[in-house]
Amino acid sequence: MTNYLKEAMAIREKLSHFRREIHRKPEVGMDLPITTAFVVEQLEKHGIKAEKPIDCGVSALIEGGKPGKTLLIRADMDALPIQEDSGEEFSSEFPGKMHGCGHDMHTAILLGVAILLNKHKDELCGRVKLMWQPGEETFEGAKAMIEAGILENPKPDAALDLHVDASSEVGNLFYSKGSFTTSADNYLIKIAGRGSHGSSPQSSIDPLNVAVQIYNAIAAMRIREIAASEYLAMSICSISSGSSFNIIPDSVELRGTMRTYNPQIRDYVVKRIEEIAQQQATLFGAKASFEIAQSAPTIVNNEEMVDKVTEYLEDFGMQFETDPNFRISASDDFGYIAREIPTVMFFLGSKPEGLKNNLLHNPKVVFDEEALPVGSALLSHLASKWLCEHA
Questions:
Q1: Cα–Cα distance for residue pair 35/56, rounded to 1 Å
Q2: CA nearest 126: which of 177, 68, 51, 189?
Q3: Burial (Cβ within 10 Å: 0-12, 13-18, ≥19) of residue 88
Q4: How is the chain split into domains, by residue range?
Q5: How many CB atoms neighbour CB 89 within 10 A?
Q6: What pLDDT shows up at residue 371?
Q7: Could you tell me the end-to-end alpha-carbon distance of the chain, in angstroms, rounded to an integer?
Q8: What is the pLDDT of residue 391?
């Protein structure tokens, strides 16, 4: 049996080179021409045919030498719109953009998986479909790749995903059964009233008053209608309107977010926020509209696959610290994949030893590149074992 950990350690300098080249040139959202071209170039250099289902998304198929099922492995490539302050010698060359969520690590790790599995493809049962997507931070990329056919021809039977964890050191691997991430719904409420001079409020339909009533009603709904045992994070993070001391504006916009592990709670709360907005507006003679601007489903780790992963790790060659109850209150658009096929998502420790207060989405975040070969080897090992057992 191939020792993927040993082989990944032998190419760790190459993986670091990949990661640093991507880190220097971060791109955000769905427009990643430089990153996409780099991934395609490296795949083709290693004799792997690359395809582009969408403009800035890449897929590759490693066809095994034996018949079997298809396993999908995914990486995200987009960066964040923040100014880097990490002090790394390979820091971002693009002002206001930074790989502060580790997607440069993910992209390099999956390139390592491609190299390792392609080298041993004759041993594989079935095939591995590799997916590099844009737009994870905006919850657009996975949907676009699905619409472009990433889950067809061949259709994957299961999927794996890995995210680096900036708060724990290499040697930590977190995954658990059931809901692993929260869903995310970023919503926009628009209130249309009637403005007036501040000295004549009776002549207005004050949208600011309506906004306050909506804000308070949503907070009360959280307390009175949702059980305390249910995790539900709700925040209205922006209320924007007006520009003068003495003019009541015509309109207000509220922007908020909600997160929960429970899909039923999610559906209920979305419905109630829309009802509250419209009813409170009507009560005061205004009008309100509600829309979900961005959304991602909960990632549910398949229980049977989690058991298999635990079994397969026994002969990986490295012992991990784990927590069977680990969940994260952040969201990821891999949830669109997870609701279609059985999946497991992992959080892999990547904090440099001895460092404190190392957080994702932070201008100062740094990552231990020792996580690169570990991640590549881990995904390769699990893919090979799962395909062999399910041939």
A1: 8
A2: 68
A3: middle
A4: 4-181+298-389, 183-295
A5: 7
A6: 98
A7: 16
A8: 86
State the Cα–Cα distance between residues 229 and 136, nearest whole angstrom. Answer: 29
Task: Supply the pTM of this predicted model.
Answer: 0.94
The residue count for the chain: 391
For residue 36, what are the β-bridge partners?
none
33 beta partners: none
Amino acid sitting at position 202: Q
pLDDT one-digit tens code per residue, 117-175: 999 999 999 999 999 999 999 999 999 999 999 999 999 999 999 999 999 999 999 99
Rounded to the nearest integer, the mean pLDDT of the chain is 97
* Three-class secondary structure assignment of the chain: CCCHHHHHHHCHHHHHHHHHHHHHCCCECCCCHHHHHHHHHHHHHCCCCEEEEECCEEEEEEECCEEEEEEEEEEECCEECCCCCCCCCCCCCCCCCECCCCHHHHHHHHHHHHHHHHHCHHHCEEEEEEEEECCCCCCCHHHHHHHCCCCCCCCCCEEEEEEEEEEEECCEEECCCEECCCEEEEEEEEEECECEECCCHHHCECHHHHHHHHHHHHHHHHHHHCCCCCCEEEEEEEEECCCCCCEECCEEEEEEEEEECCHHHHHHHHHHHHHHHHHHHHHCCCEEEEEEEEEECCCEECHHHHHHHHHHHHHCCCCCECCCCCCCCCCCCCHHHHCCCCEEEEEEEEECCCCCCCCCCCCCCCCCCCHHHHHHHHHHHHHHHHHHHCC
Can you give the pLDDT at residue 1? 78
For residues 49-71, average pLDDT: 98
- How many CB atoms lie under 10 A from the CB of residue 252? 24
Dig out the tokens for 327 from the structure. Answer: 């969940």
> Which amino acid, one-letter code, is at 51?
E
Amino acid identity of 335? Answer: G
The CATH homologous superfamily to which domain 4-181+298-389 belongs is Zn peptidases (3.40.630.10)
Domain 183-295 has CATH 3.30.70.360: yes
Task: Mark 299-324 as b/e (b = at least 16 C-beta within 10 Å).
Answer: bbbbeebbebbeebbeebeeebeeee
CA neighbours closer than 13 Å in the CB half-sphere of residue 385: 20
For residue 154, whether the previous peptide bond is cis, meaning omega lies within 30 degrees of 0, is yes
Give me the sign of the Cα torsion angle 208, 188, 331, 31.
negative
